[in-house]
Amino acid sequence: MSQKGSCTTSCASKWAFYAGILAVLYGLGSYLQSINSSFYRMSPEGLNDVFQHTIAGAKAAGQSNNATWLVENVIDGITDKYPDVRFRKDFTDASQWMFNNAGGAMGSMFIIHASVTEYLIIFGTGTGTEGHTGVHTADDYFHILKGQQLAYAPGALVAEEYNPGDVHHLPRGQVKQYSMPRESWALEYAQGWIPLMLPFGFADGLFSTLDLGTMYKTTFITARHMIGNLLAGKF
Ligand SMILES: *[C@@H]1O[C@H](CO)[C@@H](O)[C@H](O)[C@H]1NC(C)=O
Protein backbone atom coordinates (compact mmCIF):
# COMPACT_ATOMS: atom_id res chain seq x y z
CA MET A 1 0.00 0.00 0.00
CA SER A 2 2.74 2.46 0.99
CA GLN A 3 4.78 1.33 -2.01
CA LYS A 4 1.84 2.05 -4.30
CA GLY A 5 1.37 5.46 -2.70
CA SER A 6 5.02 6.45 -3.24
CA CYS A 7 4.82 5.38 -6.88
CA THR A 8 1.79 7.60 -7.42
CA THR A 9 3.83 10.60 -6.30
CA SER A 10 7.09 9.75 -8.07
CA CYS A 11 5.31 8.54 -11.21
CA ALA A 12 3.32 11.76 -11.40
CA SER A 13 6.48 13.86 -11.21
CA LYS A 14 8.17 11.61 -13.77
CA TRP A 15 5.29 12.07 -16.22
CA ALA A 16 5.30 15.83 -15.59
CA PHE A 17 9.01 15.81 -16.44
CA TYR A 18 8.43 13.86 -19.71
CA ALA A 19 5.55 16.16 -20.65
CA GLY A 20 7.83 19.15 -20.03
CA ILE A 21 10.55 17.70 -22.28
CA LEU A 22 7.98 16.97 -25.02
CA ALA A 23 6.66 20.54 -24.82
CA VAL A 24 10.20 21.93 -25.14
CA LEU A 25 10.99 19.62 -28.11
CA TYR A 26 7.72 20.55 -29.78
CA GLY A 27 8.43 24.25 -29.28
CA LEU A 28 11.96 23.83 -30.66
CA GLY A 29 10.62 21.83 -33.64
CA SER A 30 8.04 24.51 -34.47
CA TYR A 31 10.67 27.22 -34.18
CA LEU A 32 13.16 25.36 -36.42
CA GLN A 33 10.37 24.76 -38.94
CA SER A 34 9.47 28.46 -38.97
CA ILE A 35 13.05 29.62 -39.64
CA ASN A 36 13.88 26.87 -42.18
CA SER A 37 12.32 28.63 -45.16
CA SER A 38 14.30 31.83 -44.51
CA PHE A 39 17.43 29.99 -45.72
CA TYR A 40 16.07 28.96 -49.14
CA ARG A 41 17.77 30.50 -52.18
CA MET A 42 15.83 28.56 -54.84
CA SER A 43 12.09 28.07 -55.25
CA PRO A 44 9.87 25.36 -56.79
CA GLU A 45 8.40 28.04 -59.13
CA GLY A 46 11.81 29.30 -60.28
CA LEU A 47 13.10 25.79 -60.91
CA ASN A 48 9.90 24.85 -62.72
CA ASP A 49 10.42 27.82 -65.10
CA VAL A 50 13.89 26.55 -66.02
CA PHE A 51 12.61 22.97 -66.25
CA GLN A 52 9.70 23.86 -68.60
CA HIS A 53 12.04 25.96 -70.72
CA THR A 54 14.44 22.98 -70.99
CA ILE A 55 11.67 20.53 -71.95
CA ALA A 56 10.35 22.94 -74.62
CA GLY A 57 13.89 23.59 -75.89
CA ALA A 58 14.58 19.86 -76.19
CA LYS A 59 11.39 19.37 -78.18
CA ALA A 60 12.28 22.24 -80.53
CA ALA A 61 15.81 20.89 -81.01
CA GLY A 62 14.65 17.28 -81.46
CA GLN A 63 16.60 16.26 -78.32
CA SER A 64 13.74 15.05 -76.08
CA ASN A 65 15.30 11.57 -75.81
CA ASN A 66 18.84 12.85 -75.29
CA ALA A 67 19.43 12.69 -71.53
CA THR A 68 22.81 14.40 -71.87
CA TRP A 69 21.22 17.35 -73.67
CA LEU A 70 18.43 17.60 -71.07
CA VAL A 71 20.75 17.46 -68.04
CA GLU A 72 23.26 19.88 -69.58
CA ASN A 73 20.58 22.43 -70.46
CA VAL A 74 18.66 22.23 -67.19
CA ILE A 75 21.87 22.73 -65.17
CA ASP A 76 22.93 25.66 -67.42
CA GLY A 77 19.48 27.25 -66.99
CA ILE A 78 19.60 26.90 -63.20
CA THR A 79 23.11 28.36 -63.01
CA ASP A 80 21.96 31.38 -65.05
CA LYS A 81 18.84 31.85 -62.92
CA TYR A 82 20.61 31.64 -59.56
CA PRO A 83 24.06 33.22 -60.05
CA ASP A 84 24.57 33.55 -56.27
CA VAL A 85 24.09 29.85 -55.44
CA ARG A 86 27.00 27.37 -55.50
CA PHE A 87 26.41 24.64 -58.11
CA ARG A 88 28.46 21.82 -59.56
CA LYS A 89 28.05 21.44 -63.30
CA ASP A 90 30.56 18.70 -64.22
CA PHE A 91 27.99 15.91 -64.66
CA THR A 92 29.91 14.49 -67.65
CA ASP A 93 32.65 13.49 -65.15
CA ALA A 94 31.52 9.97 -64.17
CA SER A 95 33.54 10.14 -60.93
CA GLN A 96 31.04 12.74 -59.62
CA TRP A 97 28.14 10.25 -59.91
CA MET A 98 27.25 7.70 -57.24
CA PHE A 99 24.71 4.97 -56.62
CA ASN A 100 21.91 5.52 -54.15
CA ASN A 101 20.18 2.57 -52.46
CA ALA A 102 17.23 3.54 -50.30
CA GLY A 103 13.81 2.13 -49.56
CA GLY A 104 14.55 -0.90 -51.73
CA ALA A 105 15.04 1.27 -54.83
CA MET A 106 18.35 1.77 -56.58
CA GLY A 107 19.42 4.64 -58.77
CA SER A 108 22.36 6.91 -59.45
CA MET A 109 22.73 10.59 -58.68
CA PHE A 110 24.79 13.68 -59.38
CA ILE A 111 24.66 16.38 -56.69
CA ILE A 112 24.25 19.88 -58.17
CA HIS A 113 23.76 21.61 -54.80
CA ALA A 114 23.49 20.43 -51.19
CA SER A 115 23.21 22.64 -48.13
CA VAL A 116 21.52 22.27 -44.74
CA THR A 117 18.09 23.35 -46.04
CA GLU A 118 18.11 22.59 -49.81
CA TYR A 119 19.39 20.00 -52.21
CA LEU A 120 19.25 19.71 -55.97
CA ILE A 121 20.31 16.52 -57.74
CA ILE A 122 19.95 14.63 -60.97
CA PHE A 123 18.51 11.25 -59.98
CA GLY A 124 17.58 8.37 -62.20
CA THR A 125 18.20 4.85 -63.34
CA GLY A 126 19.60 3.12 -66.39
CA THR A 127 17.83 -0.20 -65.78
CA GLY A 128 14.64 0.89 -63.99
CA THR A 129 13.82 0.59 -60.30
CA GLU A 130 10.99 0.43 -57.77
CA GLY A 131 10.68 1.09 -54.03
CA HIS A 132 9.60 3.22 -51.07
CA THR A 133 9.94 7.02 -51.28
CA GLY A 134 11.10 7.28 -47.66
CA VAL A 135 9.59 9.41 -44.89
CA HIS A 136 11.17 12.83 -45.23
CA THR A 137 11.43 16.05 -43.25
CA ALA A 138 11.62 17.92 -46.55
CA ASP A 139 9.27 18.84 -49.39
CA ASP A 140 10.33 17.00 -52.52
CA TYR A 141 9.87 18.14 -56.15
CA PHE A 142 10.67 15.49 -58.75
CA HIS A 143 10.91 16.98 -62.28
CA ILE A 144 10.85 14.29 -64.98
CA LEU A 145 13.39 15.10 -67.70
CA LYS A 146 13.23 11.76 -69.49
CA GLY A 147 11.32 8.51 -68.98
CA GLN A 148 8.58 8.24 -66.38
CA GLN A 149 7.72 7.84 -62.71
CA LEU A 150 4.67 5.99 -61.37
CA ALA A 151 3.58 6.48 -57.75
CA TYR A 152 0.67 5.80 -55.45
CA ALA A 153 -0.29 6.01 -51.78
CA PRO A 154 -2.11 3.15 -50.02
CA GLY A 155 -5.81 3.32 -50.82
CA ALA A 156 -5.26 4.49 -54.39
CA LEU A 157 -6.14 1.76 -56.87
CA VAL A 158 -4.83 3.75 -59.82
CA ALA A 159 -1.21 4.97 -60.18
CA GLU A 160 -0.25 8.62 -60.57
CA GLU A 161 1.77 8.94 -63.78
CA TYR A 162 4.53 11.53 -64.28
CA ASN A 163 6.03 12.07 -67.75
CA PRO A 164 8.62 14.54 -69.14
CA GLY A 165 7.50 18.07 -68.20
CA ASP A 166 5.58 16.81 -65.13
CA VAL A 167 6.56 17.54 -61.51
CA HIS A 168 5.77 15.08 -58.72
CA HIS A 169 5.48 17.05 -55.47
CA LEU A 170 5.79 14.86 -52.38
CA PRO A 171 4.99 16.99 -49.28
CA ARG A 172 7.05 16.34 -46.15
CA GLY A 173 5.85 13.32 -44.20
CA GLN A 174 3.91 11.70 -47.06
CA VAL A 175 4.94 8.26 -48.30
CA LYS A 176 4.35 6.42 -51.56
CA GLN A 177 5.57 3.45 -53.52
CA TYR A 178 7.19 4.49 -56.79
CA SER A 179 8.73 3.00 -59.90
CA MET A 180 10.72 4.26 -62.87
CA PRO A 181 11.31 2.36 -66.12
CA ARG A 182 14.73 2.13 -67.82
CA GLU A 183 16.56 5.35 -68.70
CA SER A 184 14.42 7.63 -66.55
CA TRP A 185 16.13 10.79 -65.30
CA ALA A 186 14.80 13.57 -63.11
CA LEU A 187 15.84 16.85 -61.52
CA GLU A 188 15.04 16.44 -57.82
CA TYR A 189 14.75 19.44 -55.51
CA ALA A 190 14.19 19.16 -51.75
CA GLN A 191 13.50 21.92 -49.22
CA GLY A 192 13.62 21.25 -45.49
CA TRP A 193 16.15 19.83 -43.01
CA ILE A 194 18.37 17.92 -45.42
CA PRO A 195 20.67 16.23 -42.84
CA LEU A 196 17.58 14.49 -41.40
CA MET A 197 17.05 12.82 -44.82
CA LEU A 198 20.49 11.23 -44.78
CA PRO A 199 19.75 8.23 -42.50
CA PHE A 200 17.23 6.97 -45.10
CA GLY A 201 19.82 7.54 -47.81
CA PHE A 202 22.28 5.30 -45.96
CA ALA A 203 19.94 2.63 -44.55
CA ASP A 204 20.17 0.19 -47.47
CA GLY A 205 23.93 0.74 -47.67
CA LEU A 206 24.37 -0.10 -43.99
CA PHE A 207 21.95 -3.02 -43.80
CA SER A 208 21.82 -4.43 -47.31
CA THR A 209 24.40 -3.56 -49.97
CA LEU A 210 27.38 -2.95 -47.59
CA ASP A 211 28.81 -0.91 -50.48
CA LEU A 212 31.32 1.04 -48.39
CA GLY A 213 32.85 2.76 -51.42
CA THR A 214 29.50 4.30 -52.37
CA MET A 215 28.75 5.31 -48.76
CA TYR A 216 32.17 6.92 -48.42
CA LYS A 217 31.76 8.77 -51.72
CA THR A 218 28.24 9.95 -50.80
CA THR A 219 29.43 11.20 -47.41
CA PHE A 220 32.52 12.89 -48.87
CA ILE A 221 30.72 14.64 -51.74
CA THR A 222 27.70 15.67 -49.61
CA ALA A 223 29.96 17.03 -46.86
CA ARG A 224 32.04 18.93 -49.45
CA HIS A 225 28.85 20.63 -50.70
CA MET A 226 27.41 21.35 -47.25
CA ILE A 227 30.63 22.65 -45.69
CA GLY A 228 31.45 24.72 -48.78
CA ASN A 229 28.02 26.30 -48.58
CA LEU A 230 28.26 26.94 -44.83
CA LEU A 231 31.63 28.66 -45.35
CA ALA A 232 29.97 30.79 -48.04
CA GLY A 233 27.22 31.71 -45.56
CA LYS A 234 24.53 29.45 -47.07
CA PHE A 235 22.73 27.43 -44.39
C1 LIG B 1 23.05 14.77 -77.15
O1 LIG B 1 23.39 15.98 -76.50
C2 LIG B 1 24.78 16.20 -76.34
C3 LIG B 1 24.93 17.43 -75.47
O2 LIG B 1 24.32 18.56 -76.02
C4 LIG B 1 25.40 16.30 -77.73
O3 LIG B 1 26.80 16.49 -77.57
C5 LIG B 1 25.13 15.02 -78.51
O4 LIG B 1 25.63 15.16 -79.82
C6 LIG B 1 23.63 14.76 -78.56
N1 LIG B 1 23.40 13.45 -79.19
C7 LIG B 1 22.66 13.33 -80.29
C8 LIG B 1 22.48 11.92 -80.79
O5 LIG B 1 22.13 14.28 -80.83
Automatic annotation (TrEMBL):
Say which enzyme class the record assigns: isomerase
* Chief place where the protein resides: endoplasmic reticulum
Q: In which pathway does it act?
A: Steroid metabolism; ergosterol biosynthesis
What keywords would UniProt list here? Endoplasmic reticulum, Isomerase, Membrane, Transmembrane, Transmembrane helix
- EC number(s) in its UniProt entry? 5.-.-.-
Q: Which domain of life is it from?
A: Eukaryota
TM segments? 15-32
List the InterPro entries hit by this protein, alphabetically: ERG2_sigma1_rcpt-like
Indicate the family of this protein: Belongs to the ERG2 family.
Its function, per the record, reads: Catalyzes the reaction which results in unsaturation at C-7 in the B ring of sterols.
Name of this chain's protein: C-8 sterol isomerase
